[in-house]
């Protein structure tokens, strides 16, 4: 109430953090945000979590970049990121910084060709910024070397969903938990990472919905679960194939649905024949009876919904994991109705929209493949120039190409691969080797510290634009404040760079960019800007402006050529880094409620950083006692790729032999330890687990 009284104005917009897409009202006094309140948006109906409510003050942090910076002559790039990073740069005028940024890209393109350049866009920016960024790379640089952090989170979900159902987004919204009998949650911790979604789940459970948790760790929601199968990390496919085996074995398959709506069932049946729960139980570390019990509960439910996140996707077998989940769903007919379906919980506020807008190397906007001539012709006509038909490099492949010398110039907007990518010693060395690195960001991030040119950009609260949440809900965010100092809106920066590269861009703002993008994307064909501006939140797909929102998809057919879902079998993966005598622990990486990804924003938020001020490693009591260690003891954690120091925290959520660490702390970056093995289909890296040892 006091903030409401003190504020001299209020602006309705969105939370900048997770894919739930909560509506918020910013309370502003003297051009400072003084409070955030939950708004009655469709995703949250007034609810907010601690990040949304208290994580706003990063916007006013004194370390905000407010003037362009260029690397001082002779200042070496230091992959160890030690020393005074700010001292390596000097302020520059916009003219000087932009001229340097453009001339570097132009020189490399002339000397080494377009494929020596690449761009990493941003899942926190708007749909319009994502669209412009991929257009800049495709038309200004001249290749499809464009990607963003979806490659590190749900790329495997996108690959498996596109293959099976012809659509990369969720089939049903989170709110459908109110109508479901059973929630199956695998490799996701919504209590920490999608807290308002977790609150809808808790409400449903209170009303009688049963929850199944499949996870190597106990999560916040486990105490509300009917079953928690705490399986061995990496045994996902053994577990899921055992569940699918149980469907056939106990006559739980919905044959009518399978015959009408799917293809490939016999290959699935043959594949799972050896995977009885009794055979797989020792591999999974759970009882066979438990596997059978949760399968029955899910299959026999009148309506069952499935949610998953990074615990499923961030593996070299991530796509196969999602294929198994899809098979489980399809074989039981748990899709196409309210309260059923497939829901990959999207992490960042606009990772769905950024992927939809074409910020991926194999597709133009709306997943139209660059390798298909009709799509290529469509975008060549729209953009007025010839385009490359070869899919480009993915995020981790870009780092490998930089390391090999094939990639020489990189533009990064708002991403922080020097913290978020796997095997950071390799990643940071690769970034250092680039001839020309331009970073557009709001802080001098670990990645910006290795740049040649840094362009100060706008924070979420300083821009207008559309954002797509995990439910396929496109919403408008509104500008609350002006960017600080000389910082500029991201779309303006992209336009100036494009003009420098010879493109004739002359957009007047996000509405005009949306109006160019929307007719190129079939999913938005019924959502012209006027509809979006009026409704402020519309769920795609919409065939025409009068099509009502479609929260539930696949009621009659899937988006595949045959209209049927394609079931794809998954073999048991070979463990790429099993624990051994030298590295006896499995480290699981993830997030905490108070912090967001690489910590750039939340570590600079007073309340959030006070909740979790330092990096900790979670450990089971048995391991602590067996090794004679103490709670709070500072240890060194070592993998085959790197090491870091952090304190031990007792965890009652882990299995003995497993450790947990968040990846948000620059002083002990968990990804120094992780592996860059790639999933062959999705090219996602195996960020979720690696083998480590504790050294004192
Ligand atoms: Fe923001 Fe997500 Fe929390 Fe909602 S649940 S307030 S979108 S971080």
UniProtKB/TrEMBL annotation:
Keywords from UniProt, A to Z, are: 4Fe-4S, Iron, Iron-sulfur, Metal-binding, Oxidoreductase, Repeat, Ubiquinone
Give the required cofactors: [2Fe-2S] cluster
Domain of life per record: Bacteria
Is Repeat found in the keyword set? yes
Sequence ranges assigned to domain 4Fe-4S Mo/W bis-MGD-type in this UniProt record: 8-63
**Stated family:** In the C-terminal section; belongs to the prokaryotic molybdopterin-containing oxidoreductase family.
Self-association or partners: how does it assemble? Composed of 13 different subunits. Subunits NuoCD, E, F, and G constitute the peripheral sector of the complex.
Q: What is this protein called?
A: NADH-quinone oxidoreductase subunit G
Q: Which gene is annotated as encoding this protein in its UniProt record?
A: fdhF_1
Residues represented out of the complete protein: 202 to 897 of 897
């Amino acid at each position: 109430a006091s903030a409401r009284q003190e504020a001299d104005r209020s602006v309705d917009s969105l939370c900048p953090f997770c894919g739930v897409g909560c509506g918020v009202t910013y309370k502003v006094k003297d051009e400072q945000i003084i409070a955030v309140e939950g708004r009655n948006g469709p995703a949250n109906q007034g609810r907010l979590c601690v990040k949304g409510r208290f994580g706003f003050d990063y916007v006013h942090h004194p370390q905000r970049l407010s003037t362009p910076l260029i690397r001082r002559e002779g200042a070496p790039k230091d992959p160890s990121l030690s020393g005074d990073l700010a001292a390596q740069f000097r302020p520059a005028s916009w003219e000087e910084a932009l001229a340097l940024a453009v001339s570097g890209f132009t020189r490399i393109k002339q000397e080494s060709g377009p494929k020596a350049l690449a761009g990493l866009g941003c899942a926190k920016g708007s749909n319009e910024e994502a669209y412009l960024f991929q257009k800049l790379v495709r038309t200004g640089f001249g290749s499809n070397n464009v990607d963003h952090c979806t490659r590190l989170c749900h790329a495997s979900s996108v690959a498996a969903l596109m293959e099976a159902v012809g659509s990369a987004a969720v089939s049903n919204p989170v709110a459908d938990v109110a109508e479901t009998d059973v929630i199956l949650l695998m490799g996701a911790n919504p209590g920490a990472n999608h807290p308002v979604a977790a609150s809808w789940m808790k409400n449903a459970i209170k009303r009688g919905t049963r929850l199944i948790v499949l996870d190597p760790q106990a999560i916040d929601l486990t105490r509300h679960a009917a079953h928690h199968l705490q399986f061995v990390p990496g045994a996902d496919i053994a577990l899921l194939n055992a569940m699918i085996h149980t469907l056939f074995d106990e006559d739980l398959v919905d044959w009518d649905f399978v015959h009408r709506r799917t293809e490939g069932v016999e290959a699935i049946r043959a594949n799972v024949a050896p995977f009885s729960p009794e055979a797989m139980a020792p591999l999974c570390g759970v009882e066979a009876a438990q596997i059978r019990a949760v399968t029955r509960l899910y299959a026999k439910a009148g309506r069952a919904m499935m949610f998953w996140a990074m615990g499923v996707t961030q593996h070299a077998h991530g796509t196969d994991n999602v294929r198994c989940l899809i098979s489980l769903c399809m074989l039981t007919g748990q899709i196409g109705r309210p309260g059923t379906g497939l829901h990959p919980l999207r992490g960042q506020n606009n990772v769905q929209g950024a992927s939809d807008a074409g910020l991926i190397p194999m597709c133009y906007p709306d997943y139209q493949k660059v390798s298909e001539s009709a799509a290529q012709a469509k975008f060549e006509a729209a953009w007025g120039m010839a385009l490359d038909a070869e899919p480009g490099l993915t995020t981790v492949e870009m780092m490998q190409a930089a390391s090999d010398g094939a990639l020489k110039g990189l533009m990064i907007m708002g991403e922080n691969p020097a913290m978020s990518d796997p095997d950071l010693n390799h990643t940071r060395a690769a970034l250092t080797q680039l001839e020309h690195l331009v970073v557009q960001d709001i802080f001098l991030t670990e990645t910006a510290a290795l740049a040649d040119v840094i362009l100060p950009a706008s924070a979420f609260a300083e821009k207008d634009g559309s954002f797509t949440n995990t439910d396929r809900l496109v919403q408008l965010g509104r500008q609350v404040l002006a960017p600080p100092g000389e910082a500029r809106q991201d779309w303006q920066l992209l336009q100036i760079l494009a003009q420098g590269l010879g493109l004739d861009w002359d957009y007047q703002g996000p509405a005009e960019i949306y109006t160019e993008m929307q007719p190129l994307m079939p999913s938005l064909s019924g959502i012209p800007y006027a509809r979006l501006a009026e409704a402020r939140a519309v769920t795609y797909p919409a065939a025409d402006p009068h099509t009502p929102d479609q929260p539930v998809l696949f009621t009659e057919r899937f988006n595949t050529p045959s209209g049927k879902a394609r079931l794809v079998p998954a073999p048991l993966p070979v463990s790429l880094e099993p624990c051994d005598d030298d590295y006896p622990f499995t480290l699981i990486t993830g997030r905490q409620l108070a912090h967001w990804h690489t910590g750039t924003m939340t570590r600079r938020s007073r309340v959030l950083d006070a909740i979790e001020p330092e990096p900790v490693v979670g450990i089971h009591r048995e391991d602590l006692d067996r090794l004679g260690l103490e709670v709070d003891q500072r240890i060194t954690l070592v993998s085959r790729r790197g090491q870091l120091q952090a304190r031990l925290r007792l965890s009652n959520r882990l299995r003995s032999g497993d450790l947990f660490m968040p990846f948000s702390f620059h002083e002990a970056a968990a990804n120094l330890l992780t592996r860059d093995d790639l999933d062959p289909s999705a090219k996602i890296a195996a960020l979720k687990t690696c083998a480590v040892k504790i050294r004192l």
